[in-house]
Design a protein that fits this description.
Order of helices and strands of chain A: HHHEEHHHHHHHHHHHHHHHHHH
Distance between the termini of chain B: 59 Å
Distance between the termini of chain A: 47 Å
Mean pLDDT of chain B: 87
Shape of chain A: globular
Number of strands of chain A: 2
Radius of gyration of chain B: 20 Å
Structural class of chain B: mainly alpha
Number of helices of chain B: 4
Order of helices and strands of chain B: HHHH
Number of helices of chain A: 21
Helix content of chain B: over 70%
Strand order of the largest sheet of chain A: 1-2
Structural class of chain A: mainly alpha
Low-confidence stretches of chain A: none
Largest sheet of chain B: none
Shape of chain B: elongated
Oligomer: heterodimer
Largest sheet of chain A: 2 strands, antiparallel
């Protein structure tokens, strides 16, 4: 019975990946406050995770899957196309969603009034839908629509923060995000003018014939700027620290782990599949822009992170620097570089997710993410703080953690390209990361506890929050030892992109 | 093609730059939303212009119709208009909440109040 049902559903899994969370989102709103909306959201996120795991396994086995929406064949209808690259991104997004949603119940009950909770899960699932949709679609305009679904719901999620500065942060993000998305639409429109198609595979086939025109060059430039705005590449990052700092903790964890990664995916998809690596790097020479910007960002933002007194802001600045590792790998353009970038996309999602979740536990018990409030938490909340330390080690890139694997490939790619100074930058920034992670560790473990400190009354976080934190913290160590999933798939994706691009 | 024939593209570029300037240069949050709207509208005009065929008719298969204008960009822009409205609505809702929390919609006054905290 179940087997028969599955075999009917199986060919439609690519579209169910999107439709299930999309339909569940308004249902959450109808279920209203309390635990029912939460239970539905958790169930849906696990279904989405199962579907994306199955999709990735099938893609690795038998090659890309194409799904014609409404049975309209590819260049005319909207096509959902899953290959090694977006199968990987889908797994990251839905995996983070599946881990963070069980965590939301206690965290949201603490940080949001009850009347907003149904709406919270609606916005959360819409955001998940949008991010998955951006990753799965093979149609350029459809990508913009899903991007706006995820962006609009994330503005709403950010505005739910308790601090009134959450409102201004959300507004700032709305302005920047809309400009970024509009730039992407302009680029897509110019591409349509030049080629008469919106399907990505079809675009890739038709662009070489018109590659000399200024329209196509302008399209690439608009899309590159729009996507870098969304992923907060230095110097377009000003919206990010505030947006992360004042959001409800669990939203920060989810957005930091997924939203910027999906924007990186847009960049990779357009650079390598639509325009082709040869065009991106030889005609427009975008690497000459991406590499210097990411080097500056890695050094400047890691340094700025050291001087933050709010741990959320500290991690936000660290995120900007870490995303630039991914951009650095992509900017190098070689197979090793691209592998390094994609591996770090996965590893950073897991690591930063763990750090923000651990911080959410701290906010639940202590009430604030300020550095001086952490004093004594090493004893009061040993499990939470130990998860933070483990994920912190991965952020620095200590051997036997996931962060080390990323940096290993990144340094290798830099040396392959004879850019030893990039290798030095990567190593130097690891020292900076050591300093800012150490500041948190020092505050939590070594600092004397003042009289009446909030940590004296703090208890360990509840299990429903500790377990998700530990799943991600454990994963950030596990994927440093067994790299068959992250490196294996990332390498397959890199080979696929460089083989078919051009 | 001659330059006057492309005048709708000049209009699109002019509106784009106007909207972009308003977003950057104005401190009033409502004016920023207005600027954002002008910026988005310029893209609508860009798409609609590219689908227009001089003398083209609506794509209806009937006697006396055709050559047809390309309906696809026009349909895409219907979607983009909906997205634009959703963005505007959300932006204005945020401005209302900001006004309630800060008592002002001027960016510099909001920053001054945050700095006081």
């Amino acid at each position: 019975m179940i087997g028969a049902a599955l075999s009917v559903l199986q060919p439609h899994l690519p579209v169910l990946q999107i439709v299930v969370p999309l339909i569940a989102a308004p249902a959450c709103f109808a279920l209203g406050r309390g635990n029912r909306a939460w239970a539905l959201a958790v169930a849906v996120s696990w279904v989405a995770f199962g579907i994306s795991a199955w999709l990735l396994a099938t893609v690795m086995d038998t090659g890309p899957i194409s799904y014609a929406l409404g049975n309209w064949p590819a260049p005319w209808g909207i096509e959902y196309r899953v290959d090694a690259l977006n199968g990987f991104v889908l797994l990251v997004v839905s995996g983070i969603g599946a881990v963070t949603l069980p965590y939301t119940r206690r965290s949201v009950a603490h940080e949001l009034p009850e009347s907003q909770q149904g709406a919270f899960y609606t916005a959360f699932l819409l955001c998940l839908t949008g991010l998955l949709g951006v990753a799965i679609t093979g149609d350029a305009f459809n990508l913009f629509v899903f991007l706006e679904i995820s962006s609009l719901s994330s503005y709403a999620l950010i505005a739910l923060g308790r601090d009134r500065r959450a409102l201004t942060a959300s507004f700032q993000y709305l302005v920047m995000g809309t400009i970024g998305a509009t730039f992407i639409v302009i680029g897509i429109g110019l591409l349509y003018m030049a080629t008469g198609t919106l399907n990505m595979a079809d675009l890739a086939a038709r662009i070489p014939a018109v590659a000399d025109s200024r329209t196509v060059l302008a399209a690439l430039a608009f899309i590159a700027v729009g996507a870098t705005l969304k992923l907060a590449l230095f110097p377009l990052h000003f919206w990010l620290p505030n947006a992360y700092a004042y959001t409800p903790s669990v939203v920060t964890a989810f957005l930091a782990a997924t939203a910027t990664k999906v924007s990186v995916y847009i960049l990779v998809r357009f650079f390598f599949t639509v325009f082709g690596a040869a065009y991106t790097y030889e005609v427009l020479a975008l690497d000459n822009l991406l590499i210097p910007f990411s080097v500056v960002a890695i050094l400047v933002c890691s340094t700025v992170a050291i001087f933050q007194t709010d741990v959320k802001r500290l991690l936000a600045y660290s995120s900007i620097a870490q995303i630039c590792y991914i951009i650095l790998g992509i900017g190098l353009g070689s197979e090793t570089g691209l592998t390094a970038g994609l591996v770090h996309l996965f590893n950073h999602a897991v690591t930063k997710g763990a750090l923000f979740l651990a911080l959410g536990c701290v906010v639940l018990r202590v009430g604030t993410p300020r550095l001086d409030a952490l004093a004594g938490l090493g004893r009061a909340m040993p499990w939470t703080m130990f998860a933070f330390v483990l994920a912190g080690l991965s952020l620095i890139g200590v051997p036997l953690t996931a962060g080390f694997v990323s940096k290993w490939y990144l340094v290798q790619a830099a040396l392959e390209a004879d850019a030893w100074y990039l290798a030095v930058v990567v190593l130097a920034s690891s020292l900076l990361a050591l300093v800012y992670v150490w500041r948190v560790v020092e505050a939590a473990y070594l600092r004397p506890v003042p009289e009446g400190a909030p940590s004296l009354a703090a208890r360990e976080a509840p299990l429903s929050m500790l377990i998700p934190t530990w799943i991600l913290a454990g994963a950030s160590v596990y994927f440093g030892i067994d790299t068959s999933l992250n490196v294996g798939v990332a390498r397959a994706a890199a080979q696929f992109l460089l083989g078919s691009g051009g | 093609m001659d330059a006057p024939g492309l005048y709708n593209y000049w209009v699109a570029v002019f509106l784009m730059m106007t909207g972009f300037y308003v977003v950057i240069a104005r401190g009033n949050l409502i004016k920023k939303i207005v600027g954002l709207n002008i910026f988005q509208t310029s893209v609508f005009i860009l798409y609609i212009s590219m689908g227009k065929v001089t003398g083209g008719t609506a794509p209806i298969i009937a006697e006396g119709m055709g050559p047809y204008s390309n309906p696809l960009p026009h349909v895409l822009i219907l979607t983009a208009i909906v997205v634009g409205i959703a963005t505007t609505a959300l932006g204005l809702a945020l401005v209302v909440r900001i006004r309630e929390a800060y008592g002002t919609v001027e960016e510099d006054e909001i920053q001054a109040k945050d700095a006081d905290q």
